[in-house]
Amino acid sequence: GRLRLHVRIDERTAGFLALGLAKASGRPVPVVTTSGTAAVNLHPAVVEAFHARVPLIALTADRPPELRGIGANQTIDQVGLFGSAVSWQVDVPPATGRLGQVAGWRALVAEALAATRSGPVHVNLGLREPLTPSGDEHWVEPLDLVGDAEADLEQESGQGGPGERPVVEDLPARGVVVLADGAAGLAGQAHALAADLGWPVLAEPSSGGRCGGALGGYGWLLSDAGFAAAHVPDLALVVGRPTLSRAVASLLRHARDHWVVDTVGTRPDPTSTASRFFASLPLPARQSLRDQGWLGSWADADRRARAAVTAVLDGTGLSGATVARDVVATVPADALLVLGSSQAIRDVDLFAAPRDGVRLLANRGAAGIDGTVSTAVGAALAHGGAGYALVGDLTFLHDGNGLVIGPGEPRPDLTVVVNNDDGGAIFGLLEQGAPEHAAVFERVFGTPHGVDLAALCAATGTAYARAGSRGELVSALAPGRGLRVVEVRTDRSRARELHDRVRRAVGAALAG
To answer: Which residues pair with 56 in a beta bridge?
Structure first.
């Protein structure tokens, strides 16, 4: 009962499944592979885990030292395979049958578990034939006498509680709190601090703080030149690692000061403007001055912007924007929602209202789209309640093997909503999506595929439904059992024009 086993036919899928389990549970999760390219297929998940500081353990089988470097079957150089993308790594020699080796393995496991506090680790295990026990020679010590490495680790670490909060001098009256990826453990404290100071909270979807107290329209506000110029903060206090929008990056570059609460130990400062770094959320030394109109002006502008966005979206048909808005608004309370790291999370950021009681996760460490279905499966299994994912079609196809779950394997209660616009919508909103590049855009950046998602789901035995209207989408999001896919077909060629309409509407609302 101490271990739960999940088996997959694809090591890359297994790696992201383990990543999802670890992200949602906060506990170290080992993923086990054979040698050679099997181990290499863990690399994308290890890279994501490293940049997001997820406690993943890559346990890779390897050949014994005497068979390395001489052309033996399925043998590559696996020592240091993941390079700098792991926080700790060890090459374990084959078992010898000597007395005392189990105690050594226990110490190694404890060290590996301790290292996962900083991210993924790699334990490379040299194995010598025979590869299964024969007789009693492999069991020279009773395993029930060597203790519990994880329990000892928790006792020694004091449960890994947060450090004492640093005290700072008076904070300025005009500041903002930016909650970014990795801020989940401090989101509640950050909201409380912002409320005390009278500062607005700008929360990315994967920050853990995009709830009722956060501004839902901040992306549109910061993109409005007039508003941004009139609302330059004296201090931007960032919790986590902001990588989602250019508008937030511009805010940090123009703020008169910029502090970072480093939740992952990497000193995140993508704009190279931070003047101070903290390991915990700071506390003001005394009651700070408040600008009574500062928060009010942000809140009033946010209401205007969100009303303008709603008016535009209500006058359109299905789009990535409306799907994101409706999914976030419709999933049940206490649900888990995993977001694709390309356009899906940005649509949620721009078009979905903040909501209490829904847990949002995304692979924003390296911000890749690969492995998202498997990550969502793992996260849903760890979450235990209703699970949802919102992804684009390319993200979905990139991890089609995530739907392959063998008979008898644990299956999540997970609804995967696929916004299928037949290609890469995000590029149409960037510079290369401008009309002057239309002649080459579609093949190189749009990358249409024409895949029949219903047939793909049928091939893997996955329940499938297609939502052709907003009402059908809302109905399809009712909690259900097992793994299922809901496809919504939209037209990405209209996305750029929709964003322009919303931007003009927000500008008019703010001017008014």
So the answer is: 29
Instruction: Determine how many CB atoms are found less than 10 A away from the CB of residue 70.
Output: 8
What is the distance between the alpha carbons of residues 23 and 267, in angstroms, rounded to a whole number? 21
What is the rounded CA–CA span in Å between residue 39 and residue 194?
Answer: 45
Angle (deg, nearest 10), helices 372-383 and 11-25: 40
Closest CA to 153 of 86, 106, 90: 106
Cβ proximity of 313 and 388 under 8 Å: no
The pTM assigned to this predicted structure is 0.91
Strand-by-strand arrangement of the 29-33 sheet: 29-33, 56-62, 121-126, 88-92
pLDDT digits (tens, 9 = 90+) for 129-152: 877 766 655 555 555 544 454 554
Other CB atoms within 10 Å distance of the CB of residue 307: 14
Q: Are 375 and 341 in contact, with CB atoms under 8 Å apart?
A: no
CB-based contact 338:359 (threshold 8 Å):
no
- pLDDT at residue number 505: 97
CA 455 to chain centre: 28
Give pLDDT, residue 152: 46
Q: H or E stretch including 230?
A: helix 225-230
Residue 499 CA to residue 321 CA, distance in Å, equals: 9
Q: pLDDT digits over 479-509, tens only?
A: 999 999 999 999 998 999 999 999 999 999 9
In whole angstroms, give the CA distance from residue 502 to residue 505: 5
Looking only at the bridges linking them, the beta strands covering 175-179 and 283-284 are unpaired
Residue 243 contacts residue 204 (beta carbons within 8 Å): no
Q: Please name the residue that has the structure tokens 């490379």.
A: 124
- 3-state SS class at 264: coil
Query: How is residue 446 annotated by DSSP?
Result: I
What SS3 class is residue 337? Answer: strand
Beta bridge partners of 123: 59, 90
- Alpha-carbon distance of 135 to 501, in angstroms, equals 74
Q: What is the phi/psi pair of residue 386, to 5°?
A: -65, 130
Query: Are the C-beta atoms of residues 56 and 31 closer than 8 Å to each other?
Result: yes
The sign of the CA dihedral 177, 181, 186, 191 is positive
**Do the beta carbons of residue 235 and residue 256 sit within 8 Å?**
yes
Q: What is the mean pLDDT of the chain?
A: 91
Q: What letter would DSSP give residue 181?
A: B
Asked if 233 and 213 touch (Cβ cutoff 8 Å), the reply is no
